Amino acid sequence: MAQQRTSDEGSFLGRWRDRLDLFANAYPARFAITVFAGLNLLFAVLLATPWATADGRATPVVDAFFQAVSVVCVTGLSVVDMATHWSPFGNAVVMIGVQVGGIGVLTLASLLGMTVARRLGLRQRLLAASDSNPSRVRKGVVKEGQAIRLGEVGGLLRTVALSVLVFEAALIVLLYPRLLLAGKDPLAALYEATYWAFMAFTNSGFMPTAEGLEPFATDPWFLIVLMLGVFIGSLGFPVYFVLLKHLGRPRQWSLHVKMTISVSIMLFLAGGLVYLVLEWGNADSWGTRDFGQQVLHAFFLSSMARSGGFAIDDLGLLHNSSLLVTDMLMFVGGGSASTAGGIKVTTLAILFLAAVAEARGRRSMEAFDRRIPSDVLRLAVSVTLWSATIIATVTVILLEITGAPMSFVLFDVISAFGTVGLSTGFTHAGLEDPAKIILALTMFAGRIGSVTLAAALAASQKTQLFTRPEERPIVG
């Protein structure tokens, strides 16, 4: 009887495993969303327990759900005081959550599988490849050269583990002495340095102390280290992978790497200069400080606006023009397969290259002596339109629920979708529960990516075996 029960149980588990494998292979995007949703719910349960709070009382379900999504989606928006609300256990859950969310749940799963099995199966390679390149969720042949090819996924995963350890350790080393000089106890300084390092590299933006960045608001060393951590985290693991292979040979860099680095630097410089001009003379922000501090604050915000989420100044006191610029930067975000959100810098580059090609009468897009196929443009347009539609819809709903000023609501919605974490004050503890849930779902949609979401929602993907007659509508 015992052997028969074991056999029946094994058969039952085997059937469920086969069904899971079939679902993952047939619908990788839906499988990714299911796994990621389960992870968010798991952290929500952990944060809702009395053990996770400093006062020993359970966190309200909606607040726990919001914070769990914000943590796992490495966003940084809060409806509780992150520095004082959580117990040591709760803070540990938060720090683990941002690591899991920053690396990518599927990449982490594949990494653990490789560590245990010493090899990667085809399914694990496909999952990790789709996490490093969202266009792989589409069925059929991906025509453009990938930054990470299927056979290189094992190397990518080793790069992920190495880069996380090295970059975060370097940030801790750079921040720890400064915290000691600030009078922190050695153990407290080590904890805070680790917390700041984790939140900078994962682009989360949570702060370990109630005073936040106020003690370091004029400290170039501390702020520049945070900016460096955020910038590196926003480039993406495929970029690290290529740079480690061809660090001294820029000609061997892929088009993805060149576009990601160049556009990221241009946005950082342009954003800093624009903030410097727009906030000049604004006594409510940094506009009346000495020139050096104005430059520091302007470029710090430029770095954080695309994904970092750390804030020195009250963003609600910025000029409306600066808020609009921040909306634009948050919407763009960082690099693909990075800890950053947004539509990604390569998507912006593709749209710009398409406009340039059309203005010059060229039939194809070109960059760095490479031709970019038209299906990449279709994907870029799809990502942009899906993202804009989600943001617009959520903004309208929240305006009806809260009645708050549109500039503040739009700002926080884009921040949520772009997993940035900056806020004008719209997102707070007193926000209505329906609004918190909607913002949490917006963060979730922004983290999994509009490409994955669109592929998952598609009822079927069929190959069309015929071509309809062509006709050109009037555009413009």
From TrEMBL:
Primary location class: membrane
GO annotation (BP), single: metal ion transport
Organismal lineage: Bacteria, Bacillati, Actinomycetota, Actinomycetes, Micrococcales
The keyword Protein biosynthesis appears for this protein: no
Name the UniProt record assigns to this protein: Potassium transporter Trk
Pfam family, one: TrkH
Record-level Gene Ontology MF annotations: monoatomic cation transmembrane transporter activity
Membrane-topology annotation of the record: Multi-pass membrane protein
Sequence intervals crossing the membrane: 27-49, 61-80, 92-117, 156-176, 221-243, 255-278, 328-355, 376-399, 405-426, 438-459
Coiled coil (UniProt feature): none
One GO location term (cellular component): plasma membrane
InterPro entries found in the cross-reference section: Cat_transpt (IPR003445)
